[in-house]
From TrEMBL:
Keywords: Coiled coil
Protein name: DUF5082 domain-containing protein
Coiled coil ranges: 90-124
Length: 124
């Protein structure tokens, strides 16, 4: 027959079991904290790398901006010349349009005169 351990021994094992269980829970919590810290560290490390890349890009960009500023000045000068040329073209177009409208009106009037003459001639 199986002999049961004495009550004292059971209580001692039960206490040891609870202590081990608490240690396991503590270990699990510590592991979760450690994983959180590791994740935070990786995120911070990645953000730091992105910032360093951005700083490098900005320093390269500052140099490019100097050249771009000159290019913008050149572009503005070109735009002013282009605007003037465009305004001249628009003015010329408007003048041509007026001339053509006047000529069209004259032709339409002449057509009306010719129609009236033909109509009057046909009456007689």
């Amino acid at each position: 027959m199986n002999k049961l351990p004495p009550q004292e021994e059971l209580e001692t094992l039960n206490v040891e079991y609870r202590q081990l269980d608490e240690q396991i829970d503590t270990h699990k919590r510590d592991k979760i904290k450690l994983n959180t810290y590791l994740s935070d560290w990786q995120r911070i490390n990645q953000e730091e790398q992105e910032l360093l890349n951005r700083i490098l890009s900005l320093s390269e960009g500052a140099n490019a901006a100097t050249h771009a500023g000159q290019a913008l000045d050149d572009r503005e000068l070109f735009a002013n010349h282009s605007r003037s040329a465009m305004e001249e073209c628009i003015e010329e177009f408007e003048q041509t349009e007026k001339k053509l409208t006047t000529q069209l009106t004259e032709v339409e009037e002449e057509i009306q005169v010719q129609k009236k003459a033909v109509h009057d001639y046909a009456k007689d």
